[in-house]
Design goal:
Blueprint: E1 2-3, H1 5-24, E2 30-32, E3 37-42, E4 45-52, E5 58-61, E6 66-78, H2 80-90, E7 98-109, E8 119-120, H3 124-137, E9 146-147, H4 149-167, H5 170-176, H6 184-189, H7 193-215, H8 219-239, E10 253-254, E11 261-263, E12 269-277, E13 283-288, E14 294-298, E15 303-307, E16 313-318, E17 334-336, E18 343-345, E19 348-350, E20 356-358, E21 378-382, E22 387-392, E23 395-400, E24 405-410, E25 415-420, E26 425-430, E27 435-440, E28 445-450, E29 457-460, E30 466-470, E31 475-480, E32 485-490, H9 499-503, E33 513-518, E34 524-529, E35 533-538, E36 544-546, H10 551-556, E37 560-564, E38 569-573, E39 576-580, E40 583-587, E41 593-599, E42 604-609, E43 614-619, E44 624-629, E45 633-637, E46 641-645, E47 649-655
Parallel strand pairs: 7-9
Antiparallel strand pairs: 1-8, 2-3, 3-4, 4-6, 5-6, 6-7, 10-12, 11-12, 12-47, 13-14, 14-15, 15-16, 17-18, 18-19, 19-20, 21-22, 22-23, 23-24, 25-26, 26-27, 27-28, 29-30, 30-31, 31-32, 33-34, 34-35, 35-36, 37-38, 39-40, 41-42, 42-43, 43-44, 45-46, 46-47
Length: 656
């Protein structure tokens, strides 16, 4: 039997809170029930005392025949005014909190405090999770330092309040901190200018020394520290009369070619064209247009870098965070605008002649203290109308070629939305309803398509006659939009007798397809599922084909360490072929497909495994032609350039 969460909350609110409230009211603390803590404001600080319970709050003393309810309190300081100042000065949020102390006590209970509705019988899975949680949380009450309730209320609570008062001082926080640099901006906020300037000088010199030591190891090792120094220098300019400069310059360097090649078939070959040292940057997006220009986006400082086909810098711009907006997150849409050599990153257009055009996002009403989301969902260029189209939050936005907002249409809450200009469609995924909805550019519904539970990813065929929905569910949905028919794709055919038992005897979940692509000629689909499953289907009949690598490649697939729960034994599961129902399957536990790329109109395709560990090439008969160990993520650009990106290098290949 396990006590219900609702009963724990009831005991906390009815038994514990009133006891503590009587004491804390004497000091001016007020209890906020919705937030579960007591609060008092003093000297510009919010003094907060929270009440919570351990994972297992009940204990029983057999000798005394007494039942107890255990609870904890924790105290901390916050300063909302400082957070507001930080946001105004630096354009980003900070979360300030100083933790004081955690205490544990207990109150006596009677068995009359419970009834049959106070408990429930957990399932085997719930029992296991509960047991593990207790072990991880050290749920045994004997290991707790439990303070008797009278001592807790009359001695420890007043002592805790006194400590909160003492700590509610900026200098005290700085001087007693184990990491004083954490509070250097707090000193400036509090008006301690001379002390703050001394700390800024110390931090600056320490940052210089740290970077110089890291540069002795590698430029990559020092990259993030150099960016942190640059950010510090910019911040100091806004709040201090001090002026710092960075002696370190970050740049992308051209490296000597190693003449690397990819031979995916007799016809499909790629030759190294350019090799770049990118070790000083954390590159979040990479795109190449038809003339070989390269656009890079670095999210840590929101910088756009454009190189020509020789690797020479031709454009560089650090995007300033707009007032009231959050920083651009790393996972933003970017690419080459179809039919042009222009690039885009989020809501910024970088033209072929190196002009930057910003599509201003509409200002939203948001809650006080929050920042507006800067990330768009998608951007396309409507060539026939000479318009830019953007999906941002709940809106479909239409901009002129000059970047002026002309129309905004509400499309409701959505997830993973996409614009398909060729069909004048807006695709929106409704997470709660598990459906994909196709709207036209006037907001009228073209079609509604159900998806399986958690199947939030979707792909269209290049002629937009087929749609697949996939990700979490074992069954992926297939739609023939032209004929109005629906089918099912089984990446893992778990309906086959003994499939799960012989292939994955200790796993009963995560059989969804995580990646899928249609061939350019719409003749077949290639997909990859959890547990290293590689599969294809022919169109239109949806004949399933197990993609089986060459034997030598199977030997190279990394074994997966499986921990059997019932005896805690580690088992190394190696990839192997298994015959079930007169079909041959690849039993594999890792090396999932992370990228699918087609060449020669689908005559050849490649699958990247393990996020940049191996690449395998296949023909349209689904025969594995080649395999090669790689050191970075692959991508294909403008139907011409292949890239391999590691943490330190970017290698660009051109099709021979």
């Amino acid at each position: 039997m396990v006590i219900r969460k609702s009963k724990i909350e009831e005991l906390t609110n009815d038994k514990v809170i009133p006891l503590i409230e009587r004491e804390l009211n004497n000091y001016g603390f007020k209890y906020q029930k919705t937030k579960g803590f007591f609060i008092r404001r003093e000297n510009g600080f919010s003094q907060i005392i929270s009440v919570y319970t351990p994972r297992s709050p009940l204990s029983y003393d057999e000798d005394a025949e007494q039942l107890y309810f255990i609870f904890n309190i924790s105290a901390k300081l916050e300063t909302p005014d400082y957070e507001k100042w930080f946001l105004e000065k630096f354009g980003e949020k900070t979360y300030f909190s100083v933790r004081i102390e955690n205490l544990t006590s207990q109150i006596e209970l009677s068995f009359d405090d419970f009834d049959c509705e106070s408990f429930y019988e957990p399932t085997a899975s719930q029992q296991f999770k509960h047991h593990v949680s207790l072990l991880l949380a050290d749920g045994n009450s004997q290991n707790r330092n439990i303070i008797p309730i009278n001592e807790f209320l009359k001695v420890n609570v007043p002592k805790l309040v006194s400590e909160l008062v003492e700590k509610s001082d900026i200098l005290q926080i700085y001087e007693t901190s184990e990491f004083p640099f954490m509070y250097m901006y707090l000193l400036a906020y509090g008006g301690y200018t001379e002390i703050a300037d001394k700390v800024f000088l110390q931090y600056y010199q320490r940052a210089i020394d740290d970077i110089e030591n890291k540069l002795k190891i590698s430029e990559a090792e020092a990259s993030s520290s150099i960016e942190a120094l640059n950010k510090f220098i910019k911040n100091i300019q806004k709040i201090s009369s001090l002026s710092f400069t960075s002696p370190f310059n970050r740049s992308i360097k051209i490296l000597e070619s190693q003449n690397d090649t990819f031979d995916f078939s007799q016809k499909t070959k790629f030759i190294e064209k350019l090799r770049l040292d990118i070790s000083q940057f954390d590159i979040k997006s990479l795109n190449i247009n038809k003339i070989g220009d390269i656009l890079l986006f670095i999210s840590d400082n929101q910088k756009i870098i454009k190189l020509n086909s020789k690797g020479e810098l031709i454009f560089e711009k650090e995007i300033e965070t707009k007032k009231g907006f959050d920083k651009i997150f790393w996972s933003v849409p970017s690419g080459v605008i179809k039919g042009t050599n222009n690039f885009f990153v989020n809501n910024y257009i970088i033209t072929e002649n190196n002009q930057l055009l910003e599509l201003l996002l509409p200002i939203q009403k948001i809650k006080k203290g929050r920042l507006q989301n800067p990330n768009i969902a998608d951007l396309s260029y409507w060539n026939t109308k000479d318009k830019y189209l953007v999906i941002y939050e709940d809106n479909f936005l239409v901009y002129s070629k000059n970047g002026e907002l002309e129309r905004a249409m509400n499309i409701g809450q959505n997830y993973r939305s996409r614009i398909i200009v060729e069909k004048e469609w807006i695709i929106i995924y409704k997470y709660k309803d598990s459906i994909n909805i196709i709207l036209n550019f006037n907001g009228e519904t073209v079609g509604t398509y159900e998806c399986g539970n958690g199947n939030h990813l979707y792909e269209f065929s290049t002629n937009y006659e087929y749609l697949i929905c996939f990700f979490y569910s074992t069954k992926s949905q297939f739609y023939d939009l032209a004929k109005g028919k629906k089918g099912v794709l089984w990446a893992h055919p778990t309906f086959i007798k003994d499939y799960k038992e012989k292939m994955y005897n200790d796993v009963s979940h995560n059989f969804g397809m995580t990646i899928a692509k249609f061939s350019p000629d719409n003749k077949y689909i290639v997909g990859g599922a959890d547990h290293g499953k590689y599969v294809a289907w022919t169109l239109p009949k949806l004949e399933r084909i197990e993609l089986i690598p060459q034997n030598e490649m199977i030997e190279l697939l990394e074994p997966d360490v499986v921990i059997r729960l019932y005896d805690a034994t580690n088992i190394n599961e190696k990839a192997e072929l298994v015959v079930l129902d007169n079909q041959t399957f690849l039993k594999n536990r890792g090396s999932d497909i992370s990228k699918i790329i087609f060449f020669e109109n689908g005559d050849i395709f490649i699958t990247e495994l393990g996020s940049g560990k191996f690449v395998l090439s296949w023909d349209r008969n689904f025969v594995n032609l080649t395999f090669k160990k790689i050191n970075g993520r692959l991508d294909f650009h403008s139907q011409k350039f292949l890239t391999q990106k590691t943490k330190t290098e970017l290698i660009i290949y051109e099709q021979a």
